[in-house]
Write a structure and sequence with these properties.
482 residues, alpha/beta, FAD/NAD(P)-binding domain, eight-stranded mixed β-sheet, six-stranded mixed β-sheet, 14 helices, 33% helix, binds flavin-adenine dinucleotide
């Protein structure tokens, strides 16, 4: 056969088509689609009526909103939290609840360690059980490269941790490691044990903090979507909700995966993208440790003896925003795809849905938030079956444990995988917190930091890593239209 230029081009096109199909078909078949859902949180009654004014208004009663409200109330400020659904109805009740900073960027270690110290003292401080327990956590390794990476992380984390909340971790091996992983089938070479890591029940933790905030005078208004804000002389003057307007000088946007949409209507860029994770709870067994990670599966024992577990695996849905933010995320994408927690792309119904969601509205119009009281992705049963299989292979005692419940949730991620906690400088009195991947662990620390920034008091930890400008190119929060 003659190899003509036309044949080469046709061959290349065919290969590209086959290659494209090989990539697109699995993406299109990947489960996980946003759908109306129910809260997993222990119900805590909010109030129905919107007060006419407050020192600070907060969007969202997830862990970030209620923790910020709690610390602001302790400073004596009047606070109203507006929540479109119920308290902790989205991300904050869907975590699997490990309390750890392991493997996270060094820039969040100070925040995470400080936050753990706040969680540890919280039950006594509020006279309620948040369900936080520091029962230790072991991460087991087989490969020398993993051990080397853990050593590197530990050295950096020890340097970054604050003096009052140092990292308490050590490497374990041999009989000591075997004792920490009773019944494990693999020959684990080394483990990193952190005795101040642990867990909390996502269904209980944020509700307990919300109750403590309410006890300190915070009004949490549920079924109350925030539509936007008004300004006077460049400063926040009113927050407009579906229940009317409230006069205030400060607005904290802690709306989880919705913050980008809310700020976008006001012309403010908040460059974060959502990823989906699936989790499950299985029955109680005796033996395996309370909290750990081996290979690509992580687990945590609940207070009733059952185990929450899930794969270390995330799915990024391809949405309208994925194209808008492609230039921001492109340099970070290879690291995200091949990082410690692998990331897959999904091309499905969420793409068309994302083009149908309104992005601009007037403040007297109904908004997307009122039509989506509680949303969550559907779970990926395939990865959950697979991770349960790994867990049972490693700890055969889990063969006796039946699946009790499965769910999925969304986390919002910035391109550098650090949270944003700070002011939006274009509007005086406007603040945002979001982009948390380990937000339950960091929740109290982040709430305390935000309260200090809003009140103008000295923070216990440095806020510099979390400024919005670092990911908006110094444009004071105003960037390209969403
Ligand atoms: C499956 C999964 C596993 C996880 N595992 C862990 C873990 O093991 N450890 C850990 O530390 N973290 C974990 N996380 C992360 C953690 O759950 C989140 O980082 C944290 O809950 C984020 O809290 P938030 O308050 O920012 O968001 P959310 O809890 O989502 O709260 C935002 C709230 O704002 C409301 N809202 C949005 N827009 C509006 C509006 N316009 N008006 C009024 N209300 C509005 C929403 O309804 C929502 O209730 C996990 C998350 C998921 C999904």
């Amino acid at each position: 056969m003659n190899v003509t230029r036309r044949n080469v081009l046709l061959g290349t096109a065919a290969l590209a088509a086959v290659g494209g199909a090989a990539v697109m078909v699995p993406m299109a078949m990947r489960p996980g689609t946003m759908a109306p859902s129910t809260s997993r949180a222990r119900p805590v009654a909010g109030q129905a009526d919107l007060p006419p004014e407050a020192d600070v208004v907060i969007v969202g009663a997830g862990i970030m909103g209620v923790a910020t409200a709690f610390f602001l109330a302790e400073k004596g400020l009047s606070v109203v939290v507006c929540e479109k659904g119920g308290i902790a109805c989205e991300q904050s009740s869907r975590a699997y609840g490990q309390v750890t900073n392991y493997g996270l960027p060094q820039e969040v270690v100070e925040l995470g360690q400080h936050s753990k110290s706040l969680w540890r003292a919280m039950n006594a401080r509020i006279g309620r059980d948040t369900s936080y327990r520091d029962y230790g956590r072991v991460q087991a390794f087989q490969q020398d490269s993993e051990i080397e990476a853990a050593r590197e992380w530990l050295a950096g984390a020890e340097a970054a941790a604050p003096d009052h909340a140092p990292i308490r971790a050590r490497f374990v091996e041999g009989a000591e490691l075997a004792e920490m992983l009773p019944g494990a089938q693999s020959d684990w070479k080394m483990g990193l044990y952190q005795d101040d890591d642990g867990g909390m029940e996502p269904a209980l933790a944020a509700p307990a903090v919300a109750e403590a905030a309410i006890a300190r005078g915070v009004a949490i208004v549920t079924d109350c979507a925030v539509r936007g804000y008004e300004t006077e002389a460049g400063a926040i003057s009113h927050v407009v909700t579906e229940k009317g307007a409230i006069r205030t000088g400060a607005l904290v946007v802690a709306g989880g995966t919705w913050s980008r949409l809310l700020l976008g209507n006001a012309g403010i860029g908040f460059p974060v993208l959502p990823v989906y994770l699936s989790q499950q709870r299985i029955g109680a067994v005796d033996g395996p440790p309370a909290c750990g990670a081996v290979g690509r599966v992580v687990w945590r024992k609940e207070v009733d003896g059952s185990y929450s577990n899930g794969p270390r695996f995330m799915t990024a849905p391809i949405l309208r925003d994925s194209f808008a933010l492609l230039p921001d995320f492109l340099p970070a994408l290879p690291g995200m795809l091949m990082g410690d927690t692998p990331l897959d792309m999904a091309l499905g119904a969420d793409l068309t849905r994302s083009f149908r969601v309104e992005r601009q509205w007037r403040l007297d119009e109904q908004t997307p938030f009122e039509r989506a009281r509680i949303m969550a992705p559907t779970q990926n049963d395939g990865t959950l079956d697979e991770s349960l299989g790994w867990l049972r292979e490693e700890f055969p005692v889990f063969n006796q444990a039946r699946v009790i419940e499965r769910w999925a949730g969304t986390v919002d991620v910035a391109r550098d995988q650090l949270p944003v906690i700070g002011p939006i400088r274009a509007v005086q009195g406007l603040f945002v917190m979001g982009g948390f991947t380990f937000g339950l662990t960091q929740g109290l620390g982040a709430g305390e930091l935000m309260a200090d920034l809003v009140a103008g008091t000295a923070p216990a930890i440095g806020p510099n890593h979390f400024e919005l400008e670092r990911i908006t190119g110094g444009k004071a929060g105003r960037s390209r239209p969403a």
